[in-house]
Write a structure and sequence with these properties.
The complex is a heteropentamer of chains A (642), B (171), C (462), D (109) and E (499). Chain B has 171 residues and is mainly alpha-helical. Chain B is built from 6 helices and no strands. The radius of gyration of chain B is 21 Å and the shape is globular. With 499 residues, chain E is mainly alpha-helical. A two-stranded antiparallel sheet of chain E has the order 1-2. The mean pLDDT of chain E is 87. Classes of the chains: A mainly alpha (642), B mainly alpha (171), C mainly alpha (462), D mainly alpha (109), E mainly alpha (499). Chains in contact: A-B, A-C, A-D, A-E, B-C, B-D, C-D, C-E.
Chain lengths: 642, 171, 462, 109, 499
């Protein structure tokens, strides 16, 4: 019980760290700032571990901790409350654990920042951890929304961390606005929920015995479909799915550890967390689930295709993240909630690792991110190379690395739903394997293609950076073993067992069309073999990459290189019209139109004044005439109208 | 036709003729003379209606005093010639039209009044000087006194306006 | 009766005083003394002590309304004499005579506030008007003054003719054959044609006197052409006197059948409001602008005729007081200046802060800003109209016109406070401290009436 | 004799007066036209006075006499007005050498 | 100490009024500044004490008993009666709270005729306070205008080059609006039952609530009142005066205009339209809300285009007020409660925003967004404040406006889902223009203008800090405010449903 009573410390400590680092950033030395920043997260991590241990005990029931009434208006009560269950505790571990590693990594990575910039960085990073924790801890959707927007804010701040370059600011702004579009969906869903159910708290909604939702049995009722769709809009924004994914590649403008933490490991998985959290609702709305699955799948493939032709190492990873998130949504969409969450976890390990390793490379290359300018780094940066290699194996889904287990679980669930989903999913996986090995080969193999100065500069990163790499690499290797499929070992999927209470209720709605073990085994083997083949092919193809002078490309390749012109399309469809509309409304409609009318009234009074005074001709005769005419009019009114 | 009726029509015609003469004649002197004709005609009407006092007062005050005053002023200004230039024709036309319209409207309206066909009783003694004098100094003594204020102010005013100022130094 | 007799007597005294007063300032003191005596005499009568017991055969009726109105008018006149007494010398040499004529006007005013027959209405209007014809033209070498006087005279006489024709028709249509205004009261049937025709003509005749559109054409020219002191007097005291006569006649004689002729008032009111306010917007001269504004105020006062209820009565008195005091005040300031154009007021706030402040208060009152008498007055007349309950659009039109009114009054305020002075214009404004003190008192009166109108209107029910 | 003929007569005179006032430019003639209007009113009043003189009783007697007294007052006022008016016209003539009302347009707009 | 509780509403009016009159006679600029600041602090103290004195939520009837009432014009049933209900407490507190901050934040500014300036500022405060406490329609109207006149003089006398024309338009516009309302007030008055035996009718607020008005009469009365308030708020399309006035006027006046006077409009709608004309509200609410929402999106579009910081803030304010007015007309518990919060929050946020703009202009001498760049590098403290304020303005959770906008949008959603959808578009757009502004002025490379920037004064720092604390506090724990105003909301709603 005690650990759970300490739960408020988990988000509070990073917040304190944020305040200390932010306010005293010019006073404290960089080392102290770094230590404070990491330590608070580490303590939170320790508490999370305690909580996890308590949660994983037998007979644990979901805990609700209420602090105060946040909003209490009439019948609407939104308390400031935390909810602790298996899902929460898992996410707490991921966030604080990976977060801590990245904090440590950052101390070294950001060493060259200015004093105040360094403090600012850690302050933001702590603030992010705080927001993310609020997001997963919140006991109702409003608290979740607080964290939801909070992480968006931190993302904005960190992407635009080097604010002197307007491109970074543009990227940050884009991220925030695109997130906001999603947030609006979330917000509307909350409103709908409140107006339909009168509350936004999980406990009264999802309580398995007397929850409002739990007592509903009808599928696809309009309110629920609406709510789930709107929530999904929120998830699309936050987790960078089509059509709101374009901000994520741009978000790579931020420091690389940020990309690792926010744009790979944690924030972008908030959407998955949210849907997993609302699994009962979603299970009641198969229509939405189908939508989730299709959006996820399309995103997975499209992003993977785009990643094939990217030369910026971080962009490749970014598109890979989008693609992997697509997988997770596919998992959610086919009802494999725990598989999706499993993939969140393994993805957190290997993608954070990839980013950090890439960061190490970029660090070594003096800020260079273009892979065509790299090559042959494997010799000089052994640890980085090895860890990157492990992560690549993991993300490609090569057994027995962690990615294999989680991806396989999703794919087999997809097969159960429809073989088509499976085939497309495998296709995506093959693409993943290809571009990841391409990146690996281009970066670490072949000859060095950069400048001589860079070549001289290249070196292995310091321990503060490599240790987190090593830890994450270890996790990427072993992380999958908590969820070994039943095919191999009976009852070895500890992960599923652990999370099953969370998804227990929705499991009753899902049609249990499990794939037989044999089919599953065949599928695993086929896909693994295919992936390995493609991996080797991709590796070999780019092993000795030399930048070729402009080869005439076909239209498709060109489109891929230019990310299908999505950004440009958005620019033409939304940004430019919006600006033009603003100009039109301001210059023409408002100033000429509405204000024109207002001023026109004034002017017409003036005009009337000038005309009316002409009546005052100064001539007695005309005055008398007008008087007589007035008299006549009055006479006619009085005597001849009734 | 009774004699009063004949007289009525005759005097009416005379009055209208005179009135039109006032308006139409170019020479101001003729206008004055026409106006005097009108006054006489109206006095004739008063006599017809046995309002003898008013008939006399009308002739003394109006035809006598007032019109002489007018005549004096006109002579003083040497306006006997046809000095008046043509007024704007449209203004004239508009004036005539609106005046006639007003007349038509008034006549049309009032001819429908309940009392339009009431007979008049001309032969009463109300209009005799004695009776009116009594009324004036009994019933109407207050207005009579008050009218003195009017005259006073008119007198002061006429003097004020007519007096030639001693040249005064103005800044 | 006190007021009528004493004003007439004092007029005679002033008239002869012209012969005896040697110093040019003497007439002013006599006039002030006279108006104070008149005021006191009127107050005595108001509190039930008439000095003269004259049997008027019911031709004059001294009710509290009329006497109260007299008080207001005399207080305004007192203020006027105090503020502008010196400025009569600007008109010409015959200061004493000017005062005499003004006392005669006041006599006419006292008659108009208490008449009970059409005969005295007629006489009152004439006693009010004839001295004004002369006063308008009293600055003999000023061609504008002469022109104004002749215009006023011709049109005034013309309107008198119309008024008289109206009276004649009323007499003809009245079965009692009486000129007593309470005898005309006809109950609630249909208006007989003769009466209706007479009513229209009388309405036109008096509308002329109160400068209601479209019978207002004389007003801007005459107010502009007359000497500023006389304009101030004509625009305020004389106009409200005509209004009180208007109200008295129509309430007593035709009040019972109000709704049969209300439309006429509606038309006149709407026209007056629109023409007065809109034309004023474009004026360059403050004096002429105020002339038009006085027309617009006539429009507001027409609402009392429109409503003819108790609130209207209160409103009329309040409006008369508020409008007169503010106009007298602003004119007192204008007269001190040599350039009447709006530019002439530029930077007055810097040159003469006190004059500027009081002028602004007067202008705010004329605009009808709360906490000034002008607001309460407008409020009362509008309330009277709303209580009547008919033709509410007219009330809306009135407030729109009031907003237009703000435009031209605030042009002056802007010039006073927000614009820089034009060098060489109105540089030599010399005002005595007593004048300043009086201005402050006047402004204080405005504000006092602004939040305690009861001080004034409660006396109606005394 | 019916009253209406007198009404018509005096109305006609009245309107002729109005027409004159509207159309003439000589201010003295305009003034005379106004006098004509006043006279038509007088005529009307006397006619009405005779109409109201229905019986020989006191009431109708005073009814009838009141109108004639009114006429008397109108005459008084007209005289006073004329004196003032002519004074003003003379004053104007002295200053401008003209009594044409169309020249009176220094004040306008 | 301060006498009995019912003297508070009065004190809130008289302190600024009397000190305002006194301030005219203090010729020394420094002393008049200090005097005004002290006066406003005194008002704040009174306001805070009044808040502590009673728990209105527990005693909603308090409003009707606490009001002090002097016989003023008994013959027409009007009295000088003032009282505080929850909403009144809230808004008087906002007024009392804003004034010291305004004075402190602009303490360094210099004015010609400082005595007149501060006197008018204090008189405006008296007027605004009066509007919020008046429980008599005529008194309400008095104060409504009393607040307008001094602010007109303030804006016209001290400000930019085109101020005279701009403020004049504002003045005539609002004056016309309030005159129309006056007609409405009189009409309702004529249909009230008497309260005092002396008069036939009454101007008291209760009499107005009980006035017998047919729905046909309500229809046009609604518009008479509505225009007055709509111009003040302003609701699209009555807004055109606002950007010009904000651009041309001096900062303290603009702060008062946008922070406080705007609330007078919203307050007016809640206090005087909703309970008196419920039938008309039900009839026209869709139309009006559509206007409000159009205004919200319209202003958001234009705000992005603005290059002048003051105009920018003006448009963003119009956008926020669009949402607020829409929520008022949604008239359910959530939306009204949201509006109550938003009135306070918008006051705080816009005040903070103006102070930042003022500092920028004072520091750099430039107000054009295009001429500014990279200020964050030069003054990080200001940048942090601005970012917090900007995010408060776009309703980020844990900032004050989140709660209010959440409630308002929720109320809108309950009313009509599409209004809520378009309202939330406004939220997106607010992020767009706000962040663009922050980016263009504060981020990027410091240009010549930014290099020359002077330091922010300590006083301004403290004021901004206080505001930021308020922003965060209300964002995390809005309950006190909700508690304060809930009785008003239920009262208004019950009045609406009764009729």
């Amino acid at each position: 019980m005690d650990a759970i009573q300490l739960i408020y410390l988990v988000p509070l400590l990073p917040l304190i760290g944020c305040l200390i680092n932010g306010l005293a950033r010019n006073v404290l030395s960089k080392t102290i700032i770094g230590i404070i920043g990491s330590a608070v997260v580490f303590i939170s991590f320790c508490i999370s571990v305690l909580i996890f241990m308590q949660v994983s005990k037998e007979g644990f029931v979901t805990q609700n901790i209420r602090y105060f009434d946040f909003i209490h208006v009439g019948k609407l009560l939104i308390p400031f409350e935390f909810q602790v269950d298996q899902l929460t505790s898992l996410f707490l571990l991921i966030i604080t654990g990976v977060g801590f590693l990245i904090h440590v990594y950052s101390i070294s990575y950001m060493k060259e920042e200015s004093q105040s910039g360094f403090g600012r960085y850690f302050s933001y990073l702590n603030l992010f951890v705080f927001s993310m924790l609020i997001l997963v801890l919140g006991g109702n959707y409003v608290i979740m929304y607080i964290g939801w927007e909070g992480v968006g804010l931190c993302s904005y701040l960190l992407i635009g961390f080097w604010f002197k370059d307007q491109a970074n600011n543009d990227a940050g702004k884009k991220a925030f606005i695109m997130n906001r579009i999603g947030d609006v969906g979330f917000l509307l869903a909350v409103f709908w929920m409140i107006s339909a159910f009168g509350t936004a708290s999980y406990a009264p909604l999802y309580n398995s015995e007397n929850g409002i939702i739990s007592s509903i049995t009808a599928l696809n009722s309009p309110a629920i479909v609406g709510i789930t769709l709107l929530l999904f809009v929120g998830a699309i924004g936050k987790s960078a799915q089509i059509p709101l994914y374009t901000w994520l590649p741009d978000a790579m403008a931020g420091p690389t550890p940020v990309s690792a933490l926010i744009h790979a490991a944690t924030m972008v998985t908030a959407g998955i967390y949210m849907i997993a959290r609302s699994n009962i609702l979603y299970s009641l709305a198969p229509v939405t689930l189908a939508g989730v699955a299709s959006i996820g799948l399309i995103t997975a493939i499209v992003a993977a295709i785009i990643a094939l032709k990217q030369n910026d190492i971080k962009k490749v990873l970014a598109y890979s993240t989008v693609s992997q998130l697509g997988y997770m949504f596919l998992g959610l969409g086919v009802g494999a909630y725990s598989a999706a969450v499993f993939h969140v976890m393994t993805h957190a390990f290997f993608k954070a690792l990839l980013f950090l390793a890439a960061g190490s490379v970029i660090h070594a290359m003096g800020g260079e991110q273009d892979m065509t300018k790299m090559g042959g780094l494997g010799k000089k940066m052994k640890i980085t190379y090895v860890t990157f290699f492990i992560a690549t194996l993991a993300i490609a889904g090569i057994p027995p690395f962690s990615g294999f287990f989680s991806k396989d679980e999703i794919l087999s669930a997809a097969f159960a739903q429809s073989p088509l989903l499976y085939i497309l999913g495998v296709g995506g996986a093959l693409l993943t394997a290809f571009y990841m090995f391409r990146a690996l080969a281009m970066t670490f193999k072949g000859n060095f293609r950069g400048t001589a100065e860079q070549e001289h500069h290249v070196h292995e990163s310091p321990a503060a950076m490599t240790i987190p790499l090593i830890i994450l690499a270890t996790l990427s290797i072993v992380g999958g073993f908590v969820g070994i499929p039943e095919v191999f070992v009976k009852n070895a999927n500890k992960f599923n067992d652990f999370l099953s209470p969370v998804f227990a209720h929705s499991a009753t709605f899902m049609s249990e069309n499990h794939v037989s073990h044999q089919t599953d085994l065949i599928l695993i083997i086929v896909s693994s073999v295919l992936i390995i083949v493609v991996s080797i092919w991709g590796y070999n193809k780019y092993k000795n990459y030399t930048p070729s002078p402009a080869v005439s490309e076909n239209a498709f390749v060109k489109a891929v290189k230019n990310k299908f012109y999505i950004d440009e399309a958005y620019d033409i469809l939304f940004v430019k019209p919006y600006r033009a509309l603003g100009a039109f409304l301001n210059n023409i409609f408002d100033q000429k139109g509405i204000d024109g009318i207002v001023n026109g009234v004034g002017r017409s009074v003036n005009y009337g004044s000038r005309q009316l005074r002409l009546l005052q001709s100064g001539q007695v005769g005309s005055y008398l005439l007008l008087m007589v005419i007035g008299l006549l009019i009055l006479f006619i009114i009085q005597l001849f109208t009734k | 036709m009774e004699i009063t009726q004949i007289l009525f029509w005759f005097l009416s015609a005379l009055a209208l003729f005179g009135a039109i003469g006032v308006v139409a004649s170019k020479n101001p002197i003729y206008s004055v003379l026409c106006l005097i004709i009108v006054f006489f005609a109206i006095s004739g009407h008063y006599v017809l209606m046995n309002a003898q006092f008013l008939a006399i007062v009308n002739i003394i005050v109006y035809a006598g005093a007032i019109m002489v005053l007018f005549l004096f002023v006109i002579m003083l200004m040497n306006l006997n010639a046809e000095t008046e230039p043509m007024k704007n024709v449209y203004m004239k036309l508009a004036g005539v039209i609106s005046g006639l319209t007003l007349m038509i409207v008034l006549v049309a309206a009032l001819s429908h009044s309940d009392s339009a066909n009431t007979l008049m009783r001309p032969g009463t003694s109300v209009g005799l000087t004695e009776n009116l004098g009594k009324a004036l100094f009994n019933q109407y003594v207050v207005p009579f006194e008050i009218s003195s204020v009017l005259f006073l102010s008119a007198m002061v005013g006429a003097i004020l306006i007519g007096k030639k100022d001693v040249v005064k130094n103005r800044i | 009766m006190n007021a009528i007799i004493i004003t007439a007597l004092w007029g005679v005294i002033m008239m002869f005083g012209g012969v005896f007063f040697k110093k040019s300032t003497t007439p002013k003191f006599w006039a002030i003394a006279g108006i104070i005596i008149v005021l006191l005499a009127n107050l005595f009568e108001f509190f039930g002590h008439p000095f003269f017991n004259v049997d008027t055969k019911g031709m004059l009726k001294f009710d509290s309304f009329g006497l109260h109105f007299n008080t207001i008018a005399f207080i305004c006149t007192l203020l006027f004499f105090l503020l502008n007494g010196k400025d009569f010398e600007k008109i010409g040499m015959h200061v004493s005579e000017y005062f005499a004529l003004m006392f005669f006007v006041l006599c006419g005013l006292s008659i108009l506030s208490s008449f009970n027959t059409l005969l005295l209405l007629f006489l009152g209007i004439e006693i009010l008007s004839i001295p004004l014809y002369i006063l308008t033209g009293s600055d003999k070498r000023n061609l504008k003054g002469n022109e104004a006087a002749l215009k006023y005279l011709l049109m005034g006489a013309f309107s008198t003719g119309i008024l008289l024709m109206g009276i004649a028709l009323i007499y003809g249509g009245n079965t009692l054959g009486s000129f007593y205004i309470d005898a005309i009261n006809l109950g609630t049937g249909n208006l007989p044609v003769l009466i209706a025709g007479g009513l229209v003509l009388i309405l036109v005749g008096i509308s002329f006197k109160v400068s209601a559109a479209p019978f207002h054409f004389w007003a801007p020219d005459v107010y502009d052409g007359a000497p500023a002191v006389v304009s101030s007097f004509m625009m305020t005291i004389v106009k409200i006197a005509a209004f009180v006569a208007f109200f008295r006649l129509f309430q007593t004689s035709f009040g019972a059948m109000q709704h049969q002729w209300q439309m006429l008032i509606v038309v006149i009111t709407a026209a007056t409001l629109l023409i007065g306010n809109i034309t004023a917007v474009f004026q360059k001269s403050v004096k002429r602008m105020l002339a038009y504004s006085s027309i617009s105020h006539a429009g507001f006062m027409m609402f009392t005729l429109f409503a003819l209820n108790d609130t209207a009565k209160e409103g009329l008195l309040l409006y008369a007081a508020a409008y007169s005091i503010a106009t007298i005040g602003i004119f007192a300031v204008i007269i001190k200046m040599s350039d009447y154009s709006i530019e002439g007021f530029n930077g007055l706030g810097k040159k003469q802060p006190l004059l500027a402040l009081t002028a602004v208060i007067f202008l705010l009152s004329l605009t009808g800003i709360p906490l000034t008498a002008g607001f309460t007055a407008k409020f009362y007349v509008l309330m009277a109209a709303v209580k009547d309950g008919h033709q509410l659009w007219l009330v809306v039109l009135a407030v729109i016109c009031a907003a237009i009114g703000a435009v031209y009054y605030f042009k002056v305020i802007q010039a006073i406070y927000f614009k820089d002075p034009v060098p060489g214009v109105n540089d030599e404004i010399n005002v005595s401290s007593s004048f300043k003190f009086l201005l402050v008192v006047t402004a204080a009166l405005i504000i006092l009436l602004g939040f305690l109108p009861g001080l004034l209107i409660d006396w109606i029910y005394y | 004799m019916e009253i209406k003929w007198y009404i018509f007569l005096s109305l006609t005179l009245f309107c002729i007066g109005i027409i004159g006032a509207l159309t003439r430019r000589n201010s003295i003639i305009v003034f005379m036209c106004i006098e004509l209007m006043l006279n038509s009113v007088n005529l009307m009043l006397v006619a009405f006075s005779k109409m109201h003189m229905a019986g020989a009783n006191i009431l109708s007697y005073s009814m009838a006499s009141s109108a004639q007294i009114f006429v008397f007052f109108i005459m008084i006022v007209a005289a006073a007005e004329v004196s003032v008016g002519l004074a003003i016209i003379v004053l104007l003539y002295r200053n401008t050498r003209s009594i044409d009302i169309n020249f009176l347009n220094r004040l306008k707009n | 100490m301060l006498g009995t509780y019912y003297t508070f509403p009065e004190l809130l009016i008289w302190i600024p009024f009397i000190t305002g009159l006194i301030a005219i006679f203090i010729k020394n600029e420094k002393s008049v500044k200090m005097f005004a600041l002290l006066s406003s602090i005194a008002t704040l103290v009174v306001s805070v004490i009044s808040l502590c004195y009673t728990d209105v939520a527990a005693h909603p009837e308090f409003f009707y008993y606490n009001n002090v009432s002097y016989v003023w014009m008994p013959y027409i049933g009007s009295s000088f009666s003032v009282g505080l209900d929850g909403m009144g407490f809230l808004l008087t507190f906002l007024t009392a709270f804003s004034y010291p901050l305004i004075f402190a934040a602009t303490y360094k500014s210099e004015y010609k005729n400082a005595n007149a300036f501060f006197a008018l500022m204090l008189l405006t405060q008296a007027g605004i306070m009066g509007v919020f406490v008046a429980t008599d329609a005529l008194l309400f109207y008095f104060f409504w205008e009393l607040a307008l006149i001094p602010i007109y003089f303030l804006c016209s006398r001290w400000g930019g080059e085109k101020r005279i024309a701009a403020t004049f338009k504002f003045f005539v516009y609002t004056f016309l609006g309030s005159l129309l309302m006056l007609v409405g007030i009189i009409f309702v008055y004529v249909h009230t039952a008497p309260v005092t035996p002396d008069s036939a009718h009454s101007f008291s607020i209760n009499a107005f609530y009980n006035a017998a008005l047919s729905s046909g009469q309500q229809d046009w009365l609604f518009w008479l009142f509505f225009i007055a308030f709509a111009v003040k708020i302003p609701i699209f399309p009555f807004h055109t005066w606002q950007p010009d006035v904000y651009e041309q006027s001096n900062y303290p006046s603009v702060m008062v205009l946008s922070g406080l006077m705007v609330k007078m409009g919203a307050f007016g709608v809640i206090r005087w339209i909703l309970p008196i004309f419920p039938a008309a509200v039900a009839k026209y609410e869709h139309l009006v809300m559509a206007l409000c929402i159009i205004g919200l999106i319209y202003a958001s579009c234009i705000a992005l285009y603005q290059n002048d910081l003051k105009r920018f803030v003006a448009w963003s304010s119009i956008a926020h007020l669009g949402l607020m007015s829409a929520a008022i007309f949604a008239a359910n518990e959530l939306s009204l409660q949201g509006v109550m919060l938003e009135m306070l929050n918008h006051g705080i946020n816009i005040l903070a925003l103006w102070i930042v703009v003022d500092i920028i202009e004072k520091k750099t001498g430039v107000r054009k967004i295009s001429q500014l760049s990279g200020l964050a590098g030069k003054s990080p403290a200001l940048a942090i404040f601005l970012v917090i304020i900007a995010f408060a303005n776009i309703a980020l959770p844990l900032s004050n406006s989140f709660v209010s906008e959440f409630l308002m949008l929720n109320g809108l959603f309950d009313f009509n889902i599409w209004f809520a959808v378009f309202g939330t578009i406004g939220i997106i757009l607010s992020a767009v223009y706000m962040l663009s502004m922050v980016q263009r002025t504060f981020f990027g490379k410091a240009n010549v203008v930014a290099e020359q920037a002077k330091k922010m004064s300590a006083g301004q720092g403290i004021v901004l800090f206080a505001l930021v604390v308020a922003i965060l506090f209300l964002g995390i724990y809005p309950e006190p405010v909700i508690h304060l105003t809930q009785s008003t909301v239920t009262d208004i709603l019950s009045k609406m449903s009764l009729k």
